[in-house]
Every structure is written in C-alpha cells, then in structure tokens.
C-alpha cells in the first residue's frame, strides 16, 4: 500500500470492536463475531488488505443471503486423537480455524503433531493472520485451503478454469521473529484481480490468460471466461498446477467435502497441521537450525538495485508493530464500503485515533 492510498490510521482495538459489532448486529454469536473481526483486522495489520476488513461487506452480504450459519458447532465427522475431521456447517471460517488450531495445539503437545481437516467451512480469510499465534507458542503451523465453489485457475496447458488459487501458509518459530509464509498456487489472487478490475487497473505483468489462451495483464478477463495463471505462468506453470492439485486433494479429499458436492459461494475446505518441536529434537534444537537457515538467507548479497534479503513475513511483522503503535493504515474506501451496513445496523464508523 502506498502512502497515497492511506488516508488515516485507526486503532486496532477500535476496528476489532467495530467489526465484531457489525457481525453481532446481524445475529452472529459474540465469540464468533470477535474471532472473525480479529482475523480480518490482523490481516490489515500485516498489510494483506485485500483479505482484511475489505472482506466484511462480502461476509455481510453472504449472511443476508443465508449463505453463512451464525450459531452452533461444527459436526465431528471423525476423531482419532491426532487426526480430526469436521463438517464446518458453513459456520464463520475464521472462528472454525481458530478453534481447530487450539484443538491441534493441545493435541500436538500430547502426540507431537495433530491434523484437522474442515469441509464445508465459510471463507477463512487471510492465512497469514493465523500463523503468528502458533509460532509464539513454539509451534509449527501449516494450512492448506481451497474454494471448491469457485474455479478461476486453469490447469497447466488448459484454458478452462478447474481449480481455485489454493493458498498455503506455513509459520515456524526461530530464536528471533517467526517466519510467516503465505503464498498460493496461482500467481495472483481472486480478490486482487477483483480490486484491480474495479479500479480499472492492470497487473504489472501478464499473470492471467484470456479465454483463447493468450497471456494478459488485464484482470477483467476473469469476467469473460479468462483465468488466473498457476504459479510459474505459461512457461513453468506445472509447478503451481501440481501445488494446486495438492492443496485441493488435502483440503477437500481429507475433509470429504468439495467439488464433487457442487458447492456454491464462499465455501472453503481446510487442512491444517500443527507440529510441536519438543516432541522431536526439541525446541532449542529447532530454533538453532532455523536460526542458521534464516541467517544464511539474510547474509546472501542482494541483487543489483535491491535492498537486503528479507524473510517471508518480515515486512508484515514490521507493519504490524507500526499498526500497534500508530494505528492500522486502511486503504481509502474500505470503511466507506461498510458505511451502508453501519447505517442500516445503527452503528458508527470508527474514528481516527489520537496517536
């Protein structure tokens, strides 16, 4: 986000309270509303603003249309201690993932690792927003997600969409800050493509493909039968293609809910794993190795014209620290899209903080 796109900063706590109030006002249980708002604001704090409060209007629209359940618990499909499967029952995705993480961390402390598969979840938001919580407890967290109700990514060599962008996140502790990896099997995301198309902008490179199979930088092709290219593009897209298949198999296959069921809308399938290093060589040994790995990366001489090598998540954690001290920088227009909902529900928009 450039300085020109930031109009004002808002207190993180105030944004969380506002978001939670919005969701509670439409009938979401308080615990769930706070979880959803917390993950959306965390995404904004890290700089992932396409997956922060910008998603709230879409969630509210889904609730109004009956596409998200607001109360109750997930259905336990299977539970074998270190392996758990839930039917998410279209409950709020961030709440489901946070619940699954807590369960997995508790059980990883006993078994060394724990995996939870969640089918039929509502949208889970920004995957990076979950990673820090586990790393701060000395745990390693892996999340694969897919959207079986959506297909915008063509398989390598094809022209018709068959897969979702299939994000993957992996976070692990070091002796210093955690490493937070959040990437996808596609070159770009659906939300970024929608934003650029709405703003009449293009990508810096041809990261999409039109319906005839020609690479393009125009995000509006998605509205005319175009597709998002897999990671690696038209030259080496077999890498992203294989990765996308892996994510969909893990999240949909292991949860037992996905494309074979013909879901619609903002449904997600999720597969998360938590590892406790103390059950292996120990946390000190883990940190010793990850410190050496990250030090080798940081010490690599930068390419001409570039700054020092950074670790994944490093810039986001810096943004988050600034957001805690100075307020969360929201892109111009994000709160404005929530104004109609706030007015409808009798809520005031957050005010600028006095930092």
Could you explain the architecture of this structure?
- The protein has 355 residues and is of the alpha+beta class.
- It folds into two domains: 1-72 and 313-354, Malate/L-lactate/L-sulpholactate dehydrogenase, four-helix barrel (Hypothetical Oxidoreductase Yiak, Chain: A, domain 1), CATH 1.10.1530.10; 74-187 and 229-312, Malate/L-lactate/L-sulpholactate dehydrogenase, NADPH binding domain (Ribosomal Protein S8, Chain: A, domain 1, 2-Layer Sandwich), CATH 3.30.1370.
- The chain is 39% helix and 18% strand.
- It has eleven helices and twelve strands.
- It has helices spanning 12-25, 30-46, 56-64, 93-111, 128-135, 190-199, 233-236, 238-255, 283-298, 314-326, 334-345, and strands spanning 6-10, 75-79, 83-87, 113-122, 140-146, 167-172, 179-184, 208-209, 215-216, 227-228, 267-275, 328-331.
- The strands form three sheets. The chain has a seven-stranded mixed β-sheet with strand order 2-3-4-11-5-6-7, with helices on both faces. Strands 9-8-10 form a three-stranded antiparallel β-sheet, with no helix packed on it.
- The chain is globular and about 55 Å long.
- InterPro entries: Mal/L-sulf/L-lact_DH-like_ah (IPR043144), Mal/L-sulf/L-lact_DH-like_NADP (IPR043143), Mal/L-sulfo/L-lacto_DH-like_sf (IPR036111), Malate/L-lactate_DH-like (IPR003767).
- It holds the Pfam family Ldh_2.
- Keywords: Oxidoreductase.
- It comes from Muricoccus roseus.
- Belongs to the LDH2/MDH2 oxidoreductase family.
